Amino acid sequence: MSNTTKPRINPLSRRPRQQRLVLAVRGGAGAGKSWFLRSLAEAGLGRLCIFDMERKTRLLAGVGNHFDGLEIEHPDELPEFIDWALSGEGQEQNYGCFGLDSWAAYFSAKHAETIKAVRDRTGDPLAQPSAEELAADQMVLQGVLRRLCMESGKSVVIVDQIPAKGKESKEDNEVGRVLPMTASGLEYFVDVMVEVSLQERDGEIVRVFQVVKSNSPAFEVGFELTGSVTFSDFLEHMKREHGTDLPVEAPKPAAVPETIEEKQPLTLVQPQMTVQELVEKAERLGFKQADVVTGARVYHNQPNIYRLTPEQVADLDRRMTARAERVKMAQTTEEEKPAPRAQAARNLKRA
Predict the structure, then answer these.
(1) Domains of the chain, with CATH numbers?
(2) Quick one: which of 268, 274, 211, 229 has its CA closest to 26?
(3) Which of 40, 177, 215, 224 is 20 to 30 A off residue 238, Cα-Cα?
(4) pTM, two decimal places
């Protein structure tokens, strides 16, 4: 049974109207991840909102003026803050892009809560969550990424922390380096994943941004940008490589309505008969105007036929037509009866 109250979404209204980039930046402490995240504010995408799990956006220039840094004091606040920004009162701020600093801080805090709950339940100080518990925990935590990276419809930068070298397992395959995403599945929610590090190149220490995972043909695995790289540099590279006409700053005007207008079934409206037309029809059927006056008085207690309502005129028309049909039927039946003398002759012959 179809829902007649909720408007139907027009699928054609969901064709992309704006280019955006969802980027994950991973690196060790001091590699410049937060500085890169702050560069979103200068990318011409609108006001930046950073969800600050590490409570250090206060150290970035322009906080409170050029962009907002919202300090998350408890990990449970993060989903509430995101809801506030995307569908609550925060919509009034007209945020054009978002950042999360950092995913590792949120995931680690929530994962620690899961471990504590398991150990409290079992009484074993070394107990670990089962595979089923970890999978269920991951699904809940990924709701934050899904809301921010997919449902926001904006460009997003997610900062993730890499542990000290030698403490993270890395392996090679045919497409490049595969990084375990803090067991969180971050890689599935971003367009491009970049690892930032400080490296010695030609005798100088430079910041290197290397693509380690990509869903975009504009960024091949292994592609690098070096130096004081900003989010705008990634956007410009994507626009050059894509050759798309989708704007980055604001969505193109919608070409079709967002919802499908329900078509009402056509109903035939019968034309209303006037009193004069009723009288003329009565005369064609063999009645007189006096018969119409009598019918109006008997059936509708109205001696003046010119004060009859359209409904009363229609009622008299139905009654008059039905009466004419009965008279005609009676006449036809009478004509079909054989004459008395002819009937007697036929009866004599039979005898």
Answers:
(1) 16-251 (3.40.50), 275-350 (no CATH)
(2) 211
(3) 177
(4) 0.68
